Amino acid sequence: MTLQARPLRLSTADAGFEAAFQARLHWSADTDAQVEQAVTDILAAVRARGDAAVLEFTGRFDGLPADAMQALELAPAELKAAFDGLPAAQRQALEAAAARVRSYHEAQKRASGESWTYRDADGTLLGQKVTPLDRVGIYVPGGKAAYPSSVLMNAIPAHVAGVGEIIMVVPTPRGERNPLVLAAAHVAGVTRAFTIGGAQAIAALAYGTATVPRVDKITGPGNAYVASAKRRVFGQVGIDMIAGPSEILVLADGSTPADWVAMDLFSQAEHDELAQSILLCPDAGYIAQVQQAIDRLLPELPRAAIVAASLNGRGALIQTRSMDEACAISNRIAPEHLEIASAEPHRWEPLLRHAGAIFLGGYTSESLGDYCAGPNHVLPTSSTARFSSPLGVYDFQKRSSLIEVSEQGAQSLGRIASVLAHGEGLQAHARAAEMRIKP
Amino acid sequence: MTLQARPLRLSTADAGFEAAFQARLHWSADTDAQVEQAVTDILAAVRARGDAAVLEFTGRFDGLPADAMQALELAPAELKAAFDGLPAAQRQALEAAAARVRSYHEAQKRASGESWTYRDADGTLLGQKVTPLDRVGIYVPGGKAAYPSSVLMNAIPAHVAGVGEIIMVVPTPRGERNPLVLAAAHVAGVTRAFTIGGAQAIAALAYGTATVPRVDKITGPGNAYVASAKRRVFGQVGIDMIAGPSEILVLADGSTPADWVAMDLFSQAEHDELAQSILLCPDAGYIAQVQQAIDRLLPELPRAAIVAASLNGRGALIQTRSMDEACAISNRIAPEHLEIASAEPHRWEPLLRHAGAIFLGGYTSESLGDYCAGPNHVLPTSSTARFSSPLGVYDFQKRSSLIEVSEQGAQSLGRIASVLAHGEGLQAHARAAEMRIKP
C-alpha cells in the first residue's frame, strides 16, 4: 500500500470551518495517574537516599548498573574525545552553529539583560541589578530523540548569561552514548555531565546528592516522567516551559516554491505523530500545488511513515479569504514556528502578535532556525506563545530591585507610605516610614 | 502577661550555628489533599458550566447570592465613585504612589523591554519582537489581607507593558467591598472588575465564561485555594510566582538607629505569624540595642500579638564575624527584602547576589519600597530569588524571535544545517535547508 499524506483541507468560507478548525487544533496534555505516582515515589526516594537511589533507578530503568556515581560522570576529557572523534564536517558544523548561537545571545544580553539605575530629582536611586544564576541543570534526552542541537540551545544562553556551573544530565540506556551529544556538550562549555536521566535525574538536580550538585534552575525537554518531575520540583528550583508537540504554521502568498513549503511542513511532521503542520493561504491553486509536492516528495523521506501519520492526523491546508485573514487566524493559533512564505514578509509581520519564532521570506526555512541561524530553538508550544517566550539569556538571569532613598526623598515618600500603610491597617509599616521623617 | 518578642539569638562563631540556622530557615509549602480535591472539583465545574458554577460557588463560599453575573461586575463608575469618596489624603497618596510606580516601570520597559534587530554581514536579519499580552487577570484578595497597594503593583506594570485588557477579580465576602481597593483599581486603570474570588475566579479567568473573558496570564496573591488553582491552570494560561511567607533580612553595621531597624523587622513580622525577620550584624552591642528597641516599641503596635508570634517563632538576630560574612549568609538565604542598614551600602551591594529587592542605606525602609518608591513589591520569596525576579513589565510581555535569512545567508547556513540535521536523523530538516542552496 502506498503511503499517503493528506492534511485536512479547510476553507474559512465553509459553514463548518470553525468547528473543524477547533477540532484539528485540539490537543490535551492530560496527565497519567500511573506516571504521576511513579514520579512521586522517585522524587521521594532521591530526596531521602540521594546517590544510592539514583544508582538504583539508573540500573533499573536505563539498564546501566554502576557501583558508584563516579561511574556515571563523564569527564571533560571524554567530552573532548567525542568531539575529536567526529568527522571534520560535523566538528565544523557544530562549531559554526555554536558561534552563531553565541553571537545572537550576546546581542540579546546587550539588548535586554543589563543592569540599569537612575536617580530621581530628590537624589533617590532606583533600578535593577541583573545577575546570572549560580548553577543550572540541563536535561538532554537520550535514545531516539537525542538532539545535540538542543545541548547548544540550552547551554549557550546559560553560558552567555554568566552562569557559574552548567550541569548536564543525559541518560545512556544500556550504556549507549551519542557522540554528537557529548561533542556538543564540549563545544557548549558544559561544566559537569552525568549519564543519568528520567525523574531521578531531575530529583538529583533539584535536591542535590553527595555527587550531583543542587542547581537553581532546570531546563530542557524530556518524556512524560521528566515533564511531571519538573512540574513537581518547580518552586524548589526554577524550570523552563513544559513543551507540548512541536508545531509549524506557514503563511503563504504563493510566491515561495511549493516544494520548499511542502518540505517545511514535513520537517515539523517528521518529529513525531503528534507534531502539527498547518498551511494558511488565500490561493486555492497554490494549496493544490503544495498537496502535489507532498505527494511527490513524501516517498523520498526515510521518516515518511511518521510524516504521513502526523499530516493525516493533525495537519491542515487552510484556504483563507485573504492574507489579512490568514494573519488573524495565525494569532488565534499562536504557533511555535511561524513562516511568512511571502514576497512581502515585512508587510505581514507587524500583524502577527503571537508566535515563538517568526521566519520571514522564502529563504528562511524553519530548519535553518532549528540549527544555526542564531536564535533559540526552544520555543513556546501549544498556544503558550500568547504569554511566553523563546528560551533566552533572560531565563538564566534574575533581577533584584535597587532602591536607595535619599534623606530628602524619605520625607516625601514617608508621608505617602504612612497614609497608605494606615489605610491597610499595617501600623508598623507606617511607623517605619514616619521614623525617617525629620520633625 | 506582658507580650514579649525574642527573636532567636545566634552567632556564627557558635558550634551549633549551622543546625540552628537551618532549622530557623526551614519552611515547607506542603499541599493539603483536601484543598487539592476541592480545587479539582471547582475547576472542572467552572470549565463545564461557566457562569452558573461561578455564581453557585460565590453564593456558597462568599455568602454573596446573585442571580446573574451582571450583579457581580463592578462598573467603572463604581470604581471612580469609590475613589471620589476617599479622604483627600488617601486620594493624593494613591495617585502619588501610582505615578512613581508608573514612572519606574516605564524606565524598566525602556531598559529591557523593547524590540531589537540587527543584520549579519550576509544580510540576514536577526532579533526579537517584544509585544504585550492581549489580556491579563489580576487576583486581589478580599477580607483581612486586602491591599490596595497590590492592585497598583499588579495592574500598573501590565498597563505600562501595553496590555489591552486588565481584568480584576476581588472577592467581597457577604458583599463587603474595600473602598481603597476599588479606588486603586480606578487609579491603576483596570478594564473590568468582578467581585468573585477563590479557585472559581481563577477558573473563570483561565477558561473564560460567557461573562468573564478568558485571559492569557493571571497574577496576584491569594490563599491556599487560589495558589493551588493557579498551579493547576499553568500552561493553559501564564501565572506569576506562587508566594510563600514574606521575609526581611537586615544587614547592619551599627550606623542606623536601632529603633529604625527594630521597626523594619516589625513591619515584616506584622504581616502574619509565618513572616520571617532576620538581622545580621557583626556588632553584639548593636544587636542588644535592637533587642532593647524591640522590647520598648512592641507594646505600641496594634498588631503586637502577630509581631511577637512571628519574631518568636521565625525571627533571628545573628551575630556574624564580619560584614563580609553577613553578605555571604545573606546569599545563602536569598531573601525577598534585603536592607543594607550601613553607612557604606555601595560597599556591600556588589557582594549581594540573590535578593528580590535591595534597600540601600538607613533611610530606605522596606515600607517605602512596599508603597511608593517605584519598584514592584511583588517579589520572590522562600529563596526563589536564586532564580526569579520581581514582578515587572517583562511579566506582561512576550518575545518572538525574528529571522530573515538572505539568499546569500541560506547558502552557508544551509550547509551547516544539513550536516547537523543528518547527524540527528532528521532528513526532512536537511532537505528543507538543501533546497534553498543554489546548485
From TrEMBL, chains A, B:
Please state the Enzyme Commission number of this protein: 1.1.1.23
What does the note under cofactor report? Answer: Binds 1 zinc ion per subunit.
Record GO biological process = L-histidine biosynthetic process
Does Repeat show up as a keyword for this record? no
Statement: the UniProt record of this protein carries the keyword Zinc: yes
Query: Which residue positions are annotated as catalytic?
Result: 336-337
What reaction does this catalyse?
Answer: L-histidinol + 2 NAD(+) + H2O = L-histidine + 2 NADH + 3 H(+)
Offer a single GO CC term for the protein: cytosol
The entry assigns this protein to a family as follows: Belongs to the histidinol dehydrogenase family.
**Described function:** Catalyzes the sequential NAD-dependent oxidations of L-histidinol to L-histidinaldehyde and then to L-histidine.
HAMAP family cross-referenced by the UniProt entry: HisD
> What's the protein name?
Histidinol dehydrogenase
User: What's the source species for this entry?
Assistant: Ramlibacter pinisoli
